[in-house]
Amino acid sequence: MTTAIWWIRRDLRLSDNQSLHSALSQADTVIPVYILDPHLLERNASRRHQFLFRNLQILSERLEKMGCPLVLRQGKPIVELSRLKEECGASIITAEADFSSYARQRDQEVKSELNLELVNGLLIYPPGAAVKADGTPYTVFTPFYNTWLALPLPNDPLPIPDHLPAYPPLSSEALPPSNEIDGFPAGEEQAQRRLDDFLQFSVGDYHNQRDRVDLDGTSLLSPYLRFGLLSPRSAYAQMRPFLDNPQTHDGASKWLNELVWREFYFNIMAAFPFVLHGAFREAMRDIPWRSSPQDLHAWQSGHTGYPLVDAGMRQLAQTGWMHNRARMITASFLTKDLLINWQEGEAWFMQQLLDGDPASNNGGWQWTAGTGTDAAPYFRVFNPVTQSRKFDPQGEYIRTWLPELAAVPDAFIHEPWKMPSELQVKAGVQIGRDYPAPIVDHGFARQRALAAYKK
Hints:
This protein is mostly helical. The chain has helices at residues 18-26, 38-41, 46-65, 77-88, 101-113, 141-149, 188-202, 206-209, 222-226, 232-243, 249-271, 293-301, 307-319, 324-337, 342-352, 358-369, 384-391, 396-401, 421-427, 442-454, and strands at 3-8, 29-36, 71-74, 92-96, 116-119. Strand 4, helix 5 and strand 5 form a beta-alpha-beta unit.
């Protein structure tokens, strides 16, 4: 009788789990194990940890019902896997490949001592599948996208196994306590339900509504993809029919574009791991950033005086999620208006975001800062007022997250500092006391940023 360890990491699901199926195909007994790695848990990301623990609880309950309970261990993976291998006599360990510097170093250490098999599953296609004709990686999105689209369709998603074989009792630690996260109910079934609702009701108009921060025009699937509650291959398979329907093609195509951006950033991280530690573009590594703890704190807490920027930052603080358009606007404000190093923002987002992922977070920040691979031109500086008028025209998003501005008239909701004093009294908000005046003049800040970048 052969035994395999199914090492669960970022694949907290039973459907289309290639690592699980690989273990089942090679062994009579499969032991599901999750290792609480102190290196990953020491980071200050309590909301993300809560989401992880809650999803582990749900997965554990499902495995328990199948007669194959989850084994939870805590410690350095190489140590805990070696111990477990000795306890159960496993001949192979299967796991879903990950591509951050730490994940690759960790897996190489395990591979050097134990029989570890890494399979794809985190992405639709593994890094290196879409490359230039000479085999080198793309650093610009559009040609990567075109090559990616031309790849043969991936295999069909794998079903949930009918059953999992029982195994002799093994010691397991108790799961840490956890709570549900508002707006993002945990569990693989919830992820699938959210995908179903998006494809049924929203995907057809996704290209028109995705940038409106005041509308529910996005899929809200990013936390579920982050933790592998939804297989990207399965999501791709389920949305492909909508590409063939003329009524939904444009929206589905735009959503596919977003999935491929995720694949692109993972490819960049895998090919150029140094991007996690500094600018990709050598010419942009010596920008004379400002050091201003006061301005940084104002940005982090949502008190810059620019309503859409502040609304985005407060949504992030309260929910652990932020609309993608708001992410771009707040990132542009930090790097261009405040001229503060994008790495400060990257670190803050990773601390706060429920869907915080090193590849996508780094890629998005370097795109906005103009320091990355496929970056926005350095001279592109989002005007926070213009963006606010365009993507939150009636100020509904602003009023949701900035209740002190709830009674401000539409004419001043994007620039409340221009509101006459008598209207401030009527709206119950005094600018400079109840809500801050702008901490920087955008026109001045834009010229300052352009001068700094030109150096």
